[in-house]
Please model this.
Amino acid sequence: MTEDDLLKKWLNNELTDAEKQAFSERDDYAINQNIIEKAQHFKASQFFETDNFEKFKTNYHNRSSVKRLTWVKSLMRIASVLVVGLAIYFSFFNTNIIEQRTLAGQKTDINLPDLSKVILNADSEITYDANAWDSKRSLNLKGEAYFKVAKGKTFDVITANGVVTVVGTQFNVKTRDNYFEVICYEGIVKVASGTITRNLLAGDSYRILNKSFSEDKTDDVKPQWTNNKSRFKSIPLAQVIEELERQYNIKVDFKDTNTARLFTGGFAHNNLKNALSAITQPMNLTFEISSSNQVLIHGNTN
Model:
C-alpha cells in the first residue's frame, strides 16, 4: 500500500488496527495529527467542502491553476494598458503639428524646417509635423501655394484631390472644389490623382477641372499671383469669381449670368473696380458694388 493510500484511509477513518499501528510509526504522524487537531478550531466556509482526499487533491490543483491563470491574465492586462498608454503618450507628446493659414485677401511667406519656402495664397492652409520633418518631409495643403523646395529627401504635398511628390524644385499647387492644378517651374514634379499620374518638367501643367483632365504649357517662371495678379486660361467664370472673392474678401452675386462660360485673362489684386472691369468687359457683363463690398454681376446669358 502506498503512503498516499494510507493517508487517505487515515483521513477517512478506515484504517485497520494493523494499519493504524503502521501509520502511527511514520515520521510524519505527529505532524499530521497536529494538523487535524488544530483544524478542529476552524470553521470552514460554505464556499469549499472536502468530501474525501481525492476531491481535496483535485480541488487543490484546480484552484492553484485558476490562481496562476488569473495572475497571468492580470499581468497581461496591465502590460496591455501600459503599451497603449505609452503609444498614446508618444503619439501625443512626440508630435508638433504646425498650422499656417491665410484669410481672404491675405498672402504669407512660410519657411519650413529644412529651409524650403512656401508662399501661401489667400484663403489657404498648410499643416505639418515639425518633429517628424527630418525623417519625412510631408505637409497637407488646402487652397493654393507656391513651393520652393530645398534639395533633400522626398517632399510630399498632400491634398484632397491628389499628391505631389518632388525632391528639390519649384512648383505651384492649387486645390479647390472640383479644381486641382499643378504647375512645375523648376526640376521634376510627380503628380498623382486617382489613376492619372504624370511627371512634370519645367513649364508643364497638370489640371483636373470638374473631373476633366488636361495638360498644358506655361512660359511663366513663377505663378502670377505671387506678383498680385491672377491669370486664367479657359476657366469657368464661376471659378474666376471665386478667386476674386478670395483676393478682395467680397461677396459676388449673379443675375442673368451664365457662370459656366470660359474666361481667359486676368485681374490685379490692388483695385477692385479695375479687377471687375478686367473680368466683365471681355464677357459683355456689367457690375455694381455696394457700400458693404457686395458685388452684383449681371448681363446676357449667352
Q: What stands out?
A: Residues 3-92 form one domain. The first strand starts at residue 97 and ends at 101. Residues 53-93 form the longest helix (41 residues). DSSP finds six helices and 18 strands in the chain.
